[in-house]
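Board notes (copied after class):
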Amino acid sequence: MKRLSQHPALFSARLKKTLRIRALIFSLYLVFFTIPYGSFCLLIFPCLNPVRRYACAATWCRTTLWVLRKVCGITHQVRGWEHLPDGPAVLLSKHQSAWEILGLITLMPQRLCFVFKRELLRVPFFGWVLGLLKMIRINRRKGHDAFTSILRQGRARLQEGAWVVMFPEGTRTRAGTQGIYKTGGARFAVQAGVPVIPIAHTAGRVWPRNSFIKYPGIVNVSIGPAIPTTSLSPQQVNARVEKWIETEMRRMDAGAYNCPAPL
């Protein structure tokens, strides 16, 4: 019998099957761990302050990243730790994958506050727990009033010591593509008077948007220098964020930081 390596088509089929099996195991983990853990959180959250509630949620994220590494072979490496500030900030991140929520909560040394649409509150367990965390919920149908709500809630979260996280592109993009950078995050940072930290990452290469299969590889995360908002318009801040993130994405996609392509 010929060796498997002499049959590329067979090897590819067997590899795809292996990836599907790994993805299935990870999905089963999400179901059988998230439901009881979410139930546990719902029971104890009324007895905990916001900081400890967030710590419980972060534990789920760290555990999930550990399982993702063991089962699917997805790891990560980070550059630019020195750019993180000691005080309040707004993090504006590339938006490619479900990984970025898990990754940012696990990696960042500060409590994070995400902006999310209120429809997510209807998602069983995940949404219910999310509703008990001090995040920023919005009703997108309200237009200008939605931004007013972001500004009000976001300022309160910043005063409590959290960093606000927003995704300028709005929706997740495919790896190697770029969405339209909206000014909402920059507007919030300018009006709140806090610096912006741009973040680029390659999670879309190993965990593409809306993908069941996860590919072994390294998620490279690059944290950019702080962009001051004093004396700058939201458009100027947004342009600097877009330029830095997309330039860094091209560098990482070209393999500058040893980011392997999916197998």
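Comment from the instructor: The two ends are 25 Å apart (CA to CA). Confidence is low (pLDDT under 50) at residues 1-7, 259-263.
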